[in-house]
Amino acid sequence: MTTSHVPAGAHPNDGHAGPRVGLFVTCLVDLFRPTVGFATVALLERAGCRVEVPRHQTCCGQPAYNSGDRKEAAAIARQVIAAFDGYDHVVVPSGSCAGMLRVHYPSLFEDDPDWGPRAQDLAGRTHELTSFLVDVTGVQAVNDQRHDATVTYHDACSGLRELRVKAQPRQLLASVAGLTLLELPDTETCCGFGGTFCVKYPEISDRMVTEKAEMVASTGADTLLAGDLGCLMNLSGKLHRLGKAVSARHVAEVLAGMTDVPPIGAADGGDRR
């Protein structure tokens, strides 16, 4: 997704005086699945928000942070904090990146009298997408959306444990016509991705994702949904290698009605199912 700044006053929703929302796109969405970014914008606009994508946003710094490089993580965080100054809310289509901004930025600057308060301020304005829609804007359902599929849902670790995102995506999915949700056994179990974890501990990661993929297939669902693209790419790849006929999509794509693109990991024009 090409990030560009949309000046205040230039958005078609400005007449509604809705909240000014800065979209944190995330690296994986920008580089691998821009449809998720467009779907997020659509959902926020339908909720009455004025959406802007700050040009100077960067990676959230999580790879450096998880690798112990606090100096580099703090340098990245300062740029993100500055990029999102002035927005009423910052919305992220990823519990992992939202958790970094909301939970870990304040700890990075807890002894910094200048950046500490700014990190705390950003943390208080940052939300995972489905949580923002349900808990902040009061969206109870997505209107006029249909997705004829049987799906199961993976609760990604950071969204679940750091941000308490669980009921919100399910509430919104319940309003999508034609969609049947089959709950995933041990849905709260990690998929084994964990960012740098899968690089540092590939054997453990592979065992975890294999077990998780088998659980996904056991539901009989034809589509796996989640709110974190890292988990979805990890699981989609393993499902494909195991020969399981389950496709994968970000929950935002289904909620926004943007499912005309191939599933995650499928070739253009193709389908893994």
Question: What keyword list fits this structure?
Answer:
273 residues; alpha/beta; 2 domains; 4-stranded parallel β-sheet; globular; disordered C terminus
Structural overview:
- The protein is an alpha/beta fold.
- It has two domains: 14-136, 3-Layer(aba) Sandwich (Rossmann fold), CATH 3.40.50; 146-256, Rossmann fold (3-Layer(aba) Sandwich), CATH 3.40.50.11810.
- It contains 13 helices and eight strands.
- It has helices at residues 27-32, 34-46, 62-66, 70-83, 95-108, 115-125, 129-136, 157-163, 167-173, 197-200, 202-218, 229-241, 251-256, and strands spanning 20-23, 50-52, 89-92, 126-128, 146-154, 177-181, 223-226, 247-250.
- The strands form two sheets. It has a four-stranded parallel β-sheet, with helices on both faces.
- Helix 12 (229-241) links the parallel strand 7 and strand 8.
- Helix 5 (95-108) crosses helix 8 (157-163).
- The longest helix is centred in the last third of the chain and has 17 residues, at 202-218.
- Mean pLDDT is 90; it is low at 1-15 and 269-273.
